[in-house]
Amino acid sequence: MITDERKKELKDKIAKSKQIIREAFSKFRSSELAITWTGGKDSTLNLWIIKKVCDEDNIDLPKTMTIDEGDSFKEIQDLLKKYSREWNVDLEWCKNQDVIDAAGGVLGADVKVEDLNEENQKEIRERLEYTGDRFPFEAESWIGNHLMKTVVFNDFLKRNNIKGMFMAIRWDEQPARKNDPYFIKKEKDKYTPEHTRIQPILHFTERDIWDTILNYNIPYCSLYEKGYRSLGAASTSNKKSDIPAWEQDLENTVEREGRRQDKEKAMDRLRKLGYM
Amino acid sequence: MNNVILITVDALRKDMLGIYNEKSNLSPFLDSLKDSSAIFCNAFSSGPYTQSSFQGILASEYYLEYGKEKKLNPKKILVSQVLKENGIYTAGFHSNAYLSYYFGYKKGWDTFYDSMEEEVTDMYPFTRGGDINNKVEEFLKNYSFGKPLFLWVHYMDVHEPYIAENNYLSKIDPDLKISKDEMFSLFRDVLHKRDISDGKKVDILKKIYMAKVIETDSYIKNLFSIFSKYNLLNNSTFIMASDHGDEFSEHGGLSHDGKMYNELVTVPLLFYKSSYEGKIKEPVSLIDIPPTICDIFGIEASPTFKGSSLLPLGERKNKDIFGEAINKIGHQEKETDKPIYFTLDNNIKVIYRKEGDTWEAYNLLEDKSEKENIIGKVDKNLKDKLKDFINRKRGE
Questions:
Q1: Are B385 and B345 within 8 A, CB to CB?
Q2: What is the ipTM metric for this complex?
């Protein structure tokens, strides 16, 4: 149970998010906007607040996208399916089918660069400047992450002519995020179309997310109940505890400890140092 | 109460320091420690790049003890683990991804900073020396000094991409005008591709590298002023080393690949404020550092350690010198790359590459640049010594 004072705090946080969302709708038409939805706690809350604004202001809910890396939890997929129907969400499941095919759909399989289509090969050679002949099919590896997430994301923007993307980033997620603004304009480059990232729930802490979800009966994936705190690819997310996420010591332990961020970070550093 | 402070610099060539090369004046601070130090004139790393050599420096192990592995084998015991178990406070500060939590190095540290949560840039893909010092100072400010301290500080600033500040670069060559973007292009287009076809570009790379040595020396100087502030100068033994050197086309390449020539495997090693002052000519290996640190604290070394204590300094010990790594050339290690080994005996270095089953030998006294392969002339025992090392009973 939470106090009335806490309830007021949460209400204010939601109001702040709504204000950001309304600002986005004043800058862009609904058809130029889109929402990312992973099925995780943050993006589900984000979508819930956007939907509330749309309902209140009688605006069409923007197109919503989820990225299927070929390695997602069934529980996550179930939630996405159930609530996209219930909330009447126009949800597009996006994936890089070419890479999945080249890997034969097998996680960890060695993918030959030459088996990929021209666009994917170009991404690897020109953008990543990777010179190897093969790479592992893993959504959270350097090449895998790029092809399965970044490329898919950019492709979605281009195909739908999206000018603004709602995303569920939080300031307390990691130190690198702590100075993020609510609106970030991404300039056009060789691969990414110009777009603005809109981050309405930046000011929510992990604790705020859970208190809001529980207080407002917002749906969440059942895996959180089983102890997961952060959900990424199924094969690389672990739980560090068996008690529900919201009952864990959120303030003194690391949210993403169960996710293999450490590998991504180490690989990124090594690449910049000239290795790999 | 005695403390041990280990200061390491990534990719610092031995011949950059005035202590070893009187023509060099890039490290005035380190050189000023000379008279109060034991200076090892023939220290070897156990490999030519971080993954191979740091297994020696922190775990007293050879790289391939359990075969070819990407991460530190869990059976390898870090010196920090031994010390912590014996009541020493252990703190490590570094910014080398190969020594991060992911690669298995966060073992036995009471305080461990591997910088992996920081945002870095392409030009400086690590926490720079000044910020490493800030982390150390922040730690010392809050440290209670209730226990003896083992502190390890590692600098990445000499490591590529070589991006130097103008004030340091002008000390190397006042006429060299080059922007940071141009330095980065040299890294990407010349160093990264191991393209030594244009000697002028290699010269410029080396000059930038030298400027980074001056910069790093200034960080170490600042670190010592922090030590002074926290009264660590008179109750600590300081060990300083690099993990390997760097190549500037001496053997057809750049940076530090899987080769065993001296520009890569001879390293600076000095003990400051130790029991001995003066030069030590006897060859030693960096794998001797962990058992030596244990010895200084009066703690028993781990039975897994492959080296042995250097104490008492100055006493002759006839150390075996070996190195072991993967013979990778260029920036990418391939699954098919095979091991390379070396040993040293009586100033003769023997190198064996599994690829092509090739042997080399050099007389380091007469042929310092290791150009004339005398493998046909060396005693068979020397080859056998290296073969024994290669075929030794390894950990399982």
A1: yes
A2: 0.85
In tens, the pLDDT along B291-310 reads 999 999 999 999 999 999 99
Q: What is the Cα–Cα distance from B119 to B116, expressed in whole angstroms?
A: 8
Q: Which of A187, A181, A195, A190 is nearest to A27 (CA)?
A: A195
The answer to whether A272 contacts B103, with C-beta atoms less than 8 Å apart, is no
Q: Which of A239-243, B37-41, B333-337 has the highest mean pLDDT?
A: B37-41
pLDDT digits 0-9 by tens, B149-192: 999 999 999 999 999 999 999 999 999 999 999 999 999 999 99
The reply to whether residue A265 touches residue B159, judged by beta carbons under 8 angstroms, is no
Contact at CB, A272 and B122, closer than 8 angstroms:
yes
Q: DSSP per residue over B224-248, as a string?
A: HHHHHHTT-TTSEEEEEEES---EE
Residues A164 and A196 sit within 8 Å (Cβ to Cβ):
yes
For A132, the closest chain B residue by CA position comes to B332
Q: Which residues 6+ apart lie within 8 Å of A150 measured at CB?
A: none
pTM of the model: 0.71
CA B283/CA A206 separation, integer angstroms? 56
Chain A residues with CB-CB distance to B under 8 A? 131-132, 174-176, 262-263, 265-267, 269-270, 272-276
Query: Cβ B125–A263 below 8 Å, yes or no?
Result: no
